Amino acid sequence: MIDERVLNMYKASNNFGAFLEMELEVLEEGEAKYVLEIKEKHLATPIAAHGGVVAGLIDGTLGVAALTISGQNGNVVSTVELQVNFLKPVVLGDKLTSIGKVISAGKRLLYVEAAVTNQKGVLVAKASGTFNAYPAEKAFKSLNIDV
């Protein structure tokens, strides 16, 4: 079962996701979705989004999918490895949907995959990542939050 307490602490402290204006939805245990509309602040050229925005969207998606598993044991996750394949351009006004799914979960390492589509259902990126699970106390200690 997903630990809502750990998930809520993540949501409250995720300034980067708020900056990008990503909208989170946990689909089920081990699966998460983020949605992001590409705005002018996301552009690297007059019409195309910066790859780092898409990579950030993906990293968040993969991480939350992993968090839904690791959080069950009072753990949070950090990215160990991230691989992104950019398949199509992402342009101003695109509404991206990134869905991540945990493929394998051990005690400390989780492997997650994601796909990103635009509003037309076109696959624009694929990714995978490895995440390290560690005690939530380490992440939230500086915020004076009891875990």
Structure description:
The chain has 147 residues and is α+β, with helices and mostly antiparallel strands. It has one domain (4-135): Hotdog Thioesterase (Thiol Ester Dehydrase, Chain A, Roll). It contains 4 helices and 6 strands. A 6-stranded antiparallel β-sheet has the order 1-2-4-5-6-3. The longest helix is centred in the middle third of the chain and has 20 residues, at 51-70. It starts with a helix and ends in a 7-residue tail after the last helix.
- Which homologous superfamily in CATH is the superfamily? Hotdog Thioesterase
Span between termini: 17 Å
| Count of discrete structural domains | 1
CATH class: Alpha Beta
The helix count comes to 4
Mean pLDDT: 93
| Low confidence ranges | none
**CATH architecture name:** Roll
What attributes characterize this protein structure?
alpha+beta, 6 strands, 147 residues, 4 helices, Thiol Ester Dehydrase, Chain A, six-stranded antiparallel sheet
What does this entry show, briefly?
This protein is an alpha+beta fold and 147 residues long. Helices cover 28% and strands 39% of the residues. It contains four helices and six strands, in the order ααββαββββα.
Question: Topology of this protein?
Answer:
Blueprint lengths: L3 H10 L1 H6 L2 E6 L2 E7 L13 H20 L4 E12 L8 E11 L3 E9 L5 E13 H5 L7
Antiparallel strand pairs: 1-2, 2-4, 3-6, 4-5, 5-6
Protein name: PaaI family thioesterase
GO molecular function: fatty acyl-CoA hydrolase activity
Pfam families: 4HBT
